Amino acid sequence: QKEVEQNSGPLSVPEGAIASLNCTYSDRVSQSFFWYRQYSGKSPELIMSIYSNGDKEDGRFTAQLNKASQYVSLLIRDSQPSDSATYLCAVNGGSSNTGKLIFGQGTTLQVKP
Amino acid sequence: NAGVTQTPKFQVLKTGQSMTLQCAQDMNHNSMYWYRQDPGMGLRLIYYSASEGTTDKGEVPNGYNVSRLNKREFSLRLESAAPSQTSVYFCASSPQRSAIYGYTFGSGTRLTVV
Q1: Distance from the Cα of residue B24 to its chain's centroid
Q2: Do A54 and A64 contact (CB within 8 A), yes or no?
């Protein structure tokens, strides 16, 4: 079992719809969770971080964390073509607590006009 | 504020050649990291430096060496390049050893080994 798992996609949604991206992780004691956006040919950019159970909203983005289910998700409301990118889930603070982020393989999102 | 700066941006090497990828950050971060990104493999940690003066192996260290020259700079060296090292290399930094606030990435180096 991979430490951080994401569906590689592509996930295709129409413009204006809600995009839902999901991530599961294996280390139950993980403490910090991140979503990065990566445009083709560019470097990852941090867009959301979440540390406690529940929802965290920032503009059109909402991160959701459920530690009991070892599940973190990212919702993008009113999706725009400019949101088309690969979204990487990253997890930190597991049993080793060495400060290293473990990344999922990423989900490619396509927003169609 | 430049953040994390990587050089070069592109490089083509012949098998067996050596080169050093440079990384510098101006955010006074303590921890620095080198990742490689390959299609279908995601981001894999090569080496990291939790603080100035320390370095540790990551998931895929074979064929690489690193130097934490000072708090700002963390270089990655390929001693004898192999085609399997064709990849995109990202340097990243974080304020604290725990990386609780995540990383800031450099723009990447696209390396091709022929």
Answers
A1: 10
A2: yes
The beta-carbon neighbor of B102 closest among A46, A97, A98 is A46
Neighbours of B2 (CB within 10 A): 9
pLDDT the model gives residue A96: 56
Look at residue A59 and tell me whether its pLDDT is greater than 90.
yes
User: Minimal Cα distance from B103: which residue of A?
Assistant: A46
Residue B87 pLDDT class (50, 70, 90 cuts): very high
A2 part of contact set with chain B, CB < 8 Å: no
Nearest CA in chain B to A88: B42
Give the pLDDT confidence score for residue A31 in this predicted structure: 84
The residue of chain A with its CA nearest to that of B59 is A102
- The position carrying tokens 């809600």 is A18
Structure tokens at A16: 């204006």
Between chains, do A99 and B97 touch, taking CB under 8 Å as contact?
yes
Question: Touching check for A92 and chain B: CB below 8 Å?
Answer: yes
* Closest by CA position to A96, among listed A37, A27, A9: A27
Q: What is the pLDDT of residues B25-62, one digit of tens each?
A: 999 999 999 999 998 788 999 999 988 989 999 999 99
Residue B23 has pLDDT above 80, yes or no: yes
